[in-house]
Design goal:
The protein has about 240 residues and is α/β, with parallel strands linked by helices. It has helices at about 15-30, 60-75, 95-125, 145-165, 185-190, 195-200, 210-220; strands spanning about 10, 30-35, 50-55, 80, 130-135, 170-180, 235. Strand 5 (about 130-135), helix 4 and strand 6 (about 170-180) form a beta-alpha-beta unit. Bound molecules: nicotinamide-adenine-dinucleotide (NAD). The site of nicotinamide-adenine-dinucleotide has 28 residues, from helix 1.
C-alpha cells in the first residue's frame, strides 16, 4: 500500500523540476494529485491519478480557482504543496520595484493565498498537510538575491504561523529548504560543467541535488511518517551549507 493511499494533493509548479517529481512520486504512492503550473506549461503526465490545471498562481483569482478545482475533482483536500517559484539575480541597486514585487507575489504571496483558501478543507481532512518549497537562501543569501532571499525567508516565517494556528486541527505546516538542485530554474547555470562541478564540490555529498531528492522529503512531510513534524524548516541540500 502506498504511503499516500486515499489522500488528495495539490502540487504547484508541477510542470518542471521539483514539482513534477513530487506530483509523480505522490501519485505513485497512491495520492490523487492536481498538478498546477502556468497556462501553456507542459502538464502531460503518464500517471492517471494526476490531473492538470494551467493556472498562474499569482493571479487574483488563481488560489480560489485551484482549490475549487481540487475539491470538485477529489471531493476534499489533504495536502497542499506550495512549490512553484521564480528566481532572479540583480544587484540591489538594479532591482526594480516590479522585479521585487514579482518574486514576492509568486514565491510568497501566492502560497499564502492558496494555503488560506485551503484551510477549511485541510481542517476537515484531519490529516491536513501544508508544505512549502523555500530555499537555503531563506537562511543565507548570495549577490543578486535580495528579492529571492526576502521571499524565501518570508515563506519560512509564514509557514510557522500556519503551523501554530492549525496544529489544533491536526494540520501540519513545514518548509523544505533545497540546496543546489538540477532543475529548470538552475539549468542555465548548470549547463556549464565548471559551474555544476563547483556546486557539487561544495556539498558534503559531492553532487548536485536532483528533483527526486526534494520530492522524497516532501513525501515524508506529506505522509503519516511526518505526522508529528510541524513548523520546521528542513534543509535538503546534501550538506551544502555545512561550511562557508
Ligand atoms: N533548483 C534549485 O536549486 C532550488 C533551490 C532552492 C529552492 N528552489 C525552489 O524550488 C521550487 C521549484 O523550482 P525548481 O527548481 O523545480 O524550478 P523549475 O523552474 O524547474 O520549476 C518551477 C515551476 O514553477 C512554475 N511557476 C513559476 N511561476 C509560476 C506561476 N506564477 N504560476 C504557476 N506556476 C509557476 C514554473 O512554470 C515551473 O514549472 C521553487 O520555489 C524554487 O524557488 C529551487
Amino acid at each position: 500500500m502506498g504511503r499516500l493511499e486515499g489522500r488528495t494533493a495539490i502540487v504547484t509548479g508541477a510542470a518542471s523540476g521539483i514539482g513534477r517529481a513530487s506530483a509523480e512520486l505522490f501519485a505513485s504512492e497512491g495520492a490523487r494529485v492536481l498538478a498546477v503550473d502556468r497556462p501553456g506549461a507542459d502538464l502531460a503526465f503518464e500517471h492517471i491519478a494526476i490531473e492538470a490545471l494551467g493556472q498562474d498562481i499569482s493571479e487574483d483569482a488563481g488560489p480560489a480557482a485551484i482549490i475549487a478545482r481540487a475539491v470538485a475533482a477529489f471531493g476534499g483536500l489533504d495536502i497542499v504543496y506550495n512549490n512553484a517559484g521564480v528566481s532572479g539575480s540583480t544587484p540591489v541597486g538594479d532591482t526594480s520595484d516590479e522585479a521585487f514585487d514579482r518574486q514576492i507575489a509568486i514565491n510568497l504571496r501566492a502560497g499564502f493565498r492558496i494555503s488560506r483558501e485551503a484551510v477549511p478543507h485541510l481542517v476537515k481532512s484531519g490529516v491536513g498537510r501544508l508544505i512549502f518549497t523555500a530555499s537555503i537562501m531563506a537562511r543565507h543569501t548570495d549577490n543578486g538575491l535580495v528579492a529571492y532571499s526576502a521571499s524565501k525567508a518570508g515563506v519560512v516565517g509564514m509557514m510557522r504561523t500556519f503551523a501554530l494556528e492549525l496544529g489544533r486541527h491536526g494540520v501540519t505546516s513545514n518548509a523544505i529548504l533545497p540546496g543546489a538542485i538540477a532543475t529548470g530554474m538552475t539549468a542555465a547555470s548548470f549547463v556549464r560543467d565548471d559551474i555544476a562541478a563547483l556546486w557539487a564540490k561544495k556539498a558534503a555529498l559531492k553532487r548536485l541535488g536532483q528533483p527526486i531528492d526534494i520530492a522524497r522529503a516532501a513525501l515524508f512531510l506529506a505522509s503519516d511518517d511526518g505526522g508529528f513534524v510541524t513548523g520546521q524548516a528542513l534543509g535538503v541540500d546534501g550538506g551544502l551549507m555545512l561550511r562557508v
